[in-house]
Amino acid sequence: MAGHARAATGEIGAGLGAALLAVDGALRQAREQQAWARADAAAEQAVHALGQRLLRSQANERALIARIRELEAEVQAQRARACRAEGQLLGLRRRAAA
């Protein structure tokens, strides 16, 4: 009878050990899934932040390109005025020399 009790106790102990291992495995898996979920959320936030920075950078680039075009047009206008002024100056010098 004592041997039977020991065997039954051993079976119960083994069953409890297996159950504890299963619970431990499930807890580890749950923690791992939570860690992956947090990592995924952090990665998504980083990608979103980079996307926002890219959009702002592209907007700034477009504004700078527009400003460069404005300045180039101003340079062209000033060059045209300078050429006209040089022509007028040359004409005045010719009249004065004549």
Can you describe what's shown?
- This protein has 98 residues and is mainly α.
- The protein has one helix spanning 2-97.
- The chain is rod-shaped.
Give a brief rundown of this model.
With about 100 residues, the protein is mainly alpha-helical.
How would you summarize the topology of this molecule?
Blueprint: H1 2-97
Count of separate DSSP helical elements: 1
Structural class: mainly alpha
Rg, Cα atoms, Å:
42 Å
Average pLDDT across residues? 89
Task: Write the element-wise H/E pattern from the N-terminal end onward.
Answer: H
Ends: how far apart?
143 Å
Number of strands: 0
Summary keywords:
98 residues, mainly alpha, 0% strand, disordered N terminus
